[in-house]
């Protein structure tokens, strides 16, 4: 029963109508959740701004796959058209469930569903809008419960942000400043990607999560692997990659989820006079990047699923403009002698930043190369191969020279990680090796970034949050080899 100071049900209904009519949806959702949780009333809104309260009758149970089942199947879909078709089914189902949507989308589920659609490269804006609304309603409900922790809400919003969805009303519900390139958003991509190395296992876990363990779904898992079975490269027209193929080009080699270019674009670093190309042979990662690129209608940005060596060949023969800069950010390390992760490629067979890569960059006359790694010996190895293959390290002043698109350094990690930088077990092993094959130290360059913080990658986000040191250098091409 309402206490004397507590507003009556009618007063709450009127306040909600007022909040809604004034566009304060966060307050309106909170009152809606309160009317349901504390008084058992659902609200029906009318176009004229009024509303009606009613008691829920029997819960609607719909036939067919649940929303979470559908979101999961989007992850295994073969084409964007298929993903968008599935997203339309989700919108329809949410509509039919009406106020009973919580049966299928309670707590963090709307954000999980959104994240899975983001990862599958969905380009249906409406799906993201509808799910954002459900996230908002669920957060309003969660905030009424004393047991809800701030971190629960934060996790939900981080996943929303990782889909590049900006909903001011949503983000108002927390004090933390979240945006697409924030390490706490990008860390979800890193986690997904790390599991994605064993995509079969990840998808099995998802199946378990949504309670689907039929042999059919197991088959679906084994059919969809992460890396492109056949390079898409032959079908890409490098003559017409961009609207204006003669602008200077920046290439992100092994771009992963393409967060650098997405972040620079959405963060207001338009680099209008440049084209930006992200290349990665992970189909999943490129699918995600292309989903956002399409939803945001970016000009001058392309992501292609291809082997970087083939891509550089094609660029050499077909791209009309100059290659201004290349980014080589956190390449998958090679195996270090004497143990460690046996899944890693051999140093001279499968490691991306071999002499072959430097030669490829040299052949396209790439002016500058930014190299970053969190693995000390890998970084030293890249410096060595770069300096032996037509490139040299630029000293500090020249790094900032005009004409380099990334011509400034911005202030390090302030406010992002209070953790002490730590030495990894691989670095320890490298130091123990000493002598000719190990022990050399690289200078840590955490404080100097050559890209704005908005250009963060998912791996660097992980380094920031874990306090892992990052090594960076900028190279320039030397006239001849
Ligand atoms: C550790 S991830 C780093 C991704 C991203 N640059 C970052 O900093 O988070 C390395 C990426 O390089 C890609 N890669 C490795 N060899 C490649 C090659 N030859 N061509 C294209 N991509 C490659 C992998 O698919 C993977 O996405």
Automatic annotation (TrEMBL):
Comp. bias (Basic and acidic residues): 7-22
Pfam family, one: Methyltransf_31
Record GO cellular component, one term: tRNA methyltransferase complex
Keyword Metal-binding: no
UniProtKB keywords: Methyltransferase, S-adenosyl-L-methionine, Transferase, tRNA processing
Name of the protein: tRNA (guanine(46)-N(7))-methyltransferase
Gene Ontology molecular function: any one: tRNA (guanine(46)-N7)-methyltransferase activity
Domain Methyltransferase: 250-317
